[in-house]
Write a structure and sequence with these properties.
Structural class: mainly beta
Distance between the termini: 26 Å
Strand content: 35-45%
CATH class of the largest domain: Mainly Beta
Strand order of the largest sheet: 5-26-25-24-23
CATH topology of the largest domain: Neuraminidase
Shape: globular
Number of helices: 5
CATH superfamily of the largest domain: TolB, C-terminal domain
Helix content: 10-25%
CATH architecture of the largest domain: 6 Propeller
Number of strands: 31
Oligomer: single chain
Radius of gyration: 20 Å
Number of domains: 2
Length: 404
């Protein structure tokens, strides 16, 4: 699900400040945000991406109404020229038009101009899907697209024809997010959750029949977001509301945490390396490499003048990470070539930036040497389970870009 304002999920951004006796009150989540700020400040020594830390703190301060501090942090962040672009960030909407903010935004646009390499691939005329997950079935040559608003899964064939794979009224599903195909048996796994904290891991057969649904047994709020499948049948999912990565054993049906060396902040995108032993987990401030057998973990170092922060969709391709970064202000699609040990970025290639296909992308799917991705999810028009303005809905477009 979308990273909005770099560090806060959409639900938090919907909370408006109230006017009390002429004084602007703090938002209802102020205590939670201040706790996050304190944790991030302590983690600065271990997080390799200073720009990501600064951007996180800047959006947090602005969310609290502390504009002077927010601008100072933002200015320091943008001076690092990593790719953060506040011009498209709802967190800074109230600063647009001010001289200081506009000058910062203009400099970013010069440093990171548009990159237009993608082309149109498919479209679905069901405008209110609000899609989130995308997966590719190589054997049948069609795509699965999950829907937050309609709470269903559709499939798109090679000719662009769209039909329901799982109808929205069939199983009483929660909003459907990440989706993955099991190439071993053709079954489909998907994550679903609602912002109140209910969540399910779903398993469908190749015809769309629900085989099983699983939820954590504790009373904590959970939000399964994106997932990967290992060859042994194990499912590993990000839990965005509980800030965890969980392993699901298909035999015992138990969920167990996969611990990270540091606190995760809204873990979202996840991908499995070619060795079937290593997962990369994206959160608001970077990407953590995790060795599943040993439990060892460490942040991937982006190096100078680039950032791994805010990746919604995350994918492994021949020693590179492909990311849909919608948590860095203005969304972009980028490829990050990794060192042999997988701990450093050696080359960054921006594949699409500031075009009609990066209006609000979320996730994608790799097909050969091409990357297909949701270009206009419209997730910013969804509040809970309701579309806020139906007049703004548009046909959902899938774009494709050649991978380096």
């Amino acid at each position: 699900m979308l990273f909005l304002s770099g560090c806060f999920p959409l639900a938090l951004q919907e909370k408006e400040k109230e006017q009390v006796k002429g004084v602007l009150a703090e938002p209802a989540d102020a205590a939670e945000i201040r706790e996050q700020i304190a944790i991030i400040e302590k983690l600065q020594a271990v997080i390799p991406d200073r720009g990501a830390v600064l951007y996180f703190l800047s959006t947090a301060k602005q969310h609290l109404g502390e504009t002077r501090e927010a601008l100072a942090l933002l200015k320091e962040c943008l001076a690092l020229r990593e790719g953060f672009d506040p011009s498209g960030d709802p967190a800074f909407l109230g600063l647009k038009g001010s001289k200081e903010f506009d000058e910062l935004a203009e400099k970013v646009s010069r440093d990171f101009p548009p990159v237009a390499a993608a082309r149109f691939a498919f479209v679905t005329e069901e405008k209110d899907l609000i899609p989130e997950g995308l997966a590719y079935d190589a054997k049948q040559n069609f795509y699965y697209l999950s829907s937050l608003n309609r709470k269903k899964i559709v499939k798109i064939d090679s000719e662009g024809r769209v039909s329901d794979f799982v109808a929205g009224d069939r199983y009483g599903l929660l909003p459907v997010l990440g989706i993955r195909l099991d190439p071993a048996d053709g079954t489909v796994w998907a994550d679903s959750f609602e912002t109140a904290g209910r969540t399910e891991l779903l398993h469908f057969d190749s015809a769309g029949k629900l085989l099983a649904r699983y939820s954590p047994k504790d009373r904590a709020k959970h939000g399964f977001n994106d997932l990967v499948l290992r060859k042994n049948g194990e499912v590993i999912t990000t839990d965005s509301l509980n800030n965890q990565v969980l392993r699901f054993d298909p035999r015992s049906h138990e969920f167990t945490p996969l611990a990270a060396y540091r606190t995760l902040f809204y873990p979202n995108g996840i991908t499995l390396a070619g060795d079937d032993q290593t997962v990369y987990v994206a959160d608001s401030v970077g990407i953590v490499k995790m060795d599943v057998p040993s439990g060892a973990s460490r942040d991937v170092d982006p190096g100078p003048h680039t950032t791994l922060a805010g990746a919604d969709g995350l994918y492994w391709q021949k020693g590179s990470l492909i990311a849909v970064q919608n948590g860095i202000g203005s969304p972009r699609v980028a490829a990050f070539k990794l060192s042999k040990d997988g701990y450093r970025v050696t080359q960054t290639s921006v594949l699409e930036n500031h075009t009609q296909f990066t209006v609000l992308p979320t996730t994608g799917a790799i097909h050969g040497n091409d990357f297909y991705f949701i270009a206009n999810s419209q997730i910013d028009n969804l509040n809970g389970d309701k579309v806020m303005d139906v007049t703004k809905l548009a046909a959902v477009r899938i774009a494709v870009v050649r991978l380096p």
